[in-house]
Amino acid sequence: MSDLGLFVIYFTTVTIGAVIVLIFITYFFMRKHIFTAPAGEIVTTKAVTVLKCPLCDYRLRRSFREGDHVGAVASETCPIHGTNLIVEAVYSETEEKKE
Ligand SMILES: [Zn+2]
Asked: Which residues 6+ apart lie within 8 Å of 62 measured at CB?
């Protein structure tokens, strides 16, 4: 009787211990693979507008402003002709540190 009782206590202890160890292993495995998953690089993009003089090759690059679209007349003027620049292109670029 007492032998069986000891066996049951021993078996229960080992089983509970094994389950706890398994839970910890699972927890750390999950944490390693889920929470430290690709941190990813922070990439910022900004919209850029390229303005061009209709009379010469003068180009000006500035940040995008609402209302900018290809062919639109910008408020900026050509330093040579004094004519209003035309929006030649609008695109977004990735911010990079080139210094
Ligand atoms: Zn010009």
From this structure: 48, 49, 51, 76
The residue among 27, 45, 25, 29 whose CA lies nearest residue 37 is: 29
Strand segments (E) across the chain: 45-52, 59-63, 73-77, 84-94
C-alpha 24 – ligand 1 centre gap (Å): 71
pTM of the model: 0.53
Residues within 5 A (CB) of ion ligand 1: 53, 55-56, 58, 78, 80-81
Give pLDDT tens digits along the chain (99 positions): 578 888 888 888 899 889 999 999 888 888 877 766 566 667 788 999 999 999 999 999 999 999 999 999 999 999 999 999 999 999 998 866 555
Residue 65 Cα to ligand 1 middle (Å): 21
Query: From ligand 1's centre to the CA of 70, what distance in Å?
Result: 18
